[in-house]
């Protein structure tokens, strides 16, 4: 069983830490694919300081950029030769036994297309600042979607996908700023046979004020959220539960989906308001264009006021 670990790279600051965590794996059969997205930072000297045959380094001639960052995810995927892929940020890390843990869960559930591991959140100084909740070892697509809609945290780097399946669906699902791309790709992979979870934390996600989710253009985020919402509605309509638990869970998903997207839009606008309070006027005038309503705007204002008080 071979893994391809993908790093669509742009930032230099934590890249060495990221690479070191991967090269220290207790499970030996893997390749590390790094694709430099035409970065202005000196990634070359970091990567070239290693003489490890498992590292495969490529450079894009043209920058994909934040809006089209999923293009670089898929460029990494195009070079992969492993049976399974993990795609992670250039500032994130893996535990030393991450691949070993995946081997164990894959051997237990060999017919799935997707696996998931628990995550520890770290700050820029590598301090542990949080942990994602534990999950059932096996989940259907229904349980998986419901908990995510209810707010369960997850990241692209805490998933492991079957390579052939990702290629079958033309790679990671592309949305602007990768906003929802990890979720949709995971749902597609889990649709037929579900997902298996590792409850030992194996992924370290770095909370960082310069991430795309915190700095990306709010208008583009809202456009992506609206595309994601339409996708959800179509996807949910294709689901056909074959037992009472899945049927009832699907009913809950349908009941909660609207409120979930109200919160998602409100969070995007809130980040904008924190930098420029007067921008609420712009959102009022563009309410129809971005499919906003007073519930979204009211929640955005309320959460902004709470943040300011803190």
UniProtKB/TrEMBL annotation:
Query: Could you tell me which Pfam families the record lists for this protein?
Result: Glycos_transf_2
Ranges for domain Glycosyltransferase 2-like come to 4-111
Q: What is its EC number?
A: 2.4.-.-
- Superkingdom of origin organism: Bacteria
Keyword annotations for this protein? Glycosyltransferase, Transferase
GO MF entries: glycosyltransferase activity
Q: Which InterPro entries match?
A: Glyco_trans_2-like, Nucleotide-diphossugar_trans
Say yes or no: keyword Transferase present.
Answer: yes
Q: What is this protein called?
A: Glycosyltransferase
This chain's source organism reads: Phocaeicola acetigenes
